[in-house]
Specification:
alpha/beta; Immunoglobulin-like; TIM Barrel; eight-stranded parallel beta barrel; four-stranded antiparallel β-sheet; 11 helices; 30% helix; binds magnesium ion
């Protein structure tokens, strides 16, 4: 009896102390997840709480990484496997209360910089349904810098991809995923889960995944619950390098940054000026083109404050031309083919 109790204690101790956490909500995170030939620095190792005593790195590709005294993770470019899109590194952090190991996927930054963000994927001229995995694959095949998509949450808390709060007359927020996932899009695809969508996007390192967190029809609490689900899933799948976040709900934007201080978050609604966004340390603004036409000084102001500028949803050639002239960072469009042709 005493021996078995001792064994139980031993098991509890092992699980409580030094247990590797690789699924969501880990304490350890990085401030960046990509590297390039011109910038081998990936990011700093940080803790959500507690103080770092020491850091060691490991894993199959350990030799391709190094860690500096001030906790910066970098890639040894000469040790990076030729042609590899990414490599996983295991980061073990010792704190006063124990240690924690996490695996992070570090991606070679071959992401395209051409400003073109396909709105709900590339669907209009390809025959794919908007927000389908097929539309994402078309945006990737076209060579867009990013592909945008919308995320809602089912009644049993599964994030799924759809623009509206309802699909085929059924409220996503009030319906369980078992029923939602039997639904077919008009191209025959099942309603995509966020997990399947992200997995489809992370097989390449050219096109970013621009994830819009939709405010819930059930209210703020549900919107924030969805935000938590999304960050946990992104971290479980190790897809941090690929994902940028956008939302019309400013509280959601701030919650993303609280949960994932490394995240690139842009605000969509247009009712905050660049100074306010910069004060909250957002990545950028992502406003309807009419907002910027009404506030022409916001372009320069945003640039001066190092905020990125994304403009939605622009489908007309004269406006696209004007925005290219203004050298905004991203243009979200239903006409990615047209915008791509204008870049040449
Ligand atoms: Mg959207």
């Amino acid at each position: 009896m005493r021996r078995s109790l001792a064994l139980v204690w031993c098991v509890l101790l092992i699980h409580g102390y030094g247990m590797a956490q690789t699924n969501g909500q880990a304490t350890v995170y990085l401030t960046g997840y990509t590297w390039s030939k011109s910038n081998a620095a990936v990011g700093y190792v940080k803790l959500r709480k507690g103080e770092i005593k020491s850091i060691t790195i490991g894993g199959e590709y350990q030799s391709a990484f190094k860690i500096s005294k001030d906790h910066q993770l970098s890639v040894r470019a000469d040790k990076w496997k030729a042609g590899a899109m990414y490599a996983d590194v295991v980061v073990t952090v010792k704190t006063a209360s124990g240690q924690e190991s996490n695996t992070f996927r570090i991606v070679k930054d071959d992401f395209i910089r051409n400003k073109v963000i396909a709105h709900r994927g590339a669907w209009k001229n390809t025959g794919a349904t908007e927000n389908s995995i097929a539309a994402l694959n078309h945006a990737i095949a076209l060579g867009c810098e990013g592909s945008e998509f919308d995320v809602h949450m089912s009644a049993d808390s599964l994030p799924v991809i759809n623009h509206d709060a309802s699909i085929q007359g059924v409220s996503i927020a009030k319906t369980n995923s078992s029923e939602l996932l039997t639904m077919k899009l008009s191209n025959g695809e099942s309603l995509p889960t966020l997990e399947n969508y992200l997995k489809a996007g992370m097989v390449q390192n050219k096109t970013k995944l621009v994830l819009e967190i939709k405010p819930s029809e059930l209210g703020k609490e549900s919107s924030l619950a969805l935000t938590h689900k999304i960050i946990a899933l992104v971290e479980k799948l190790q897809v941090q390098a690929w994902v940028d976040y956008i939302s019309f709900d400013y509280d959601v934007c701030k919650e993303v940054m609280k949960l994932a201080p490394y995240a690139r978050v842009a605000y969509l609604k247009g009712d905050k000026n660049p100074a306010e966004l910069a004060a909250d340390k957002l990545f950028g603004l992502d406003y309807h083109f009419s907002v910027l036409q009404k506030n022409p000084d916001w372009l320069t102001d945003a640039k001066n404050r190092k905020l990125t500028i994304n403009v939605w949803t622009v489908n007309d050639k004269p406006v696209l031309e004007e925005l290219l002239k203004q050298n905004v960072d991203f243009i979200t469009t239903n006409e990615p083919e047209l915008l791509l042709s204008m870049l040449k």
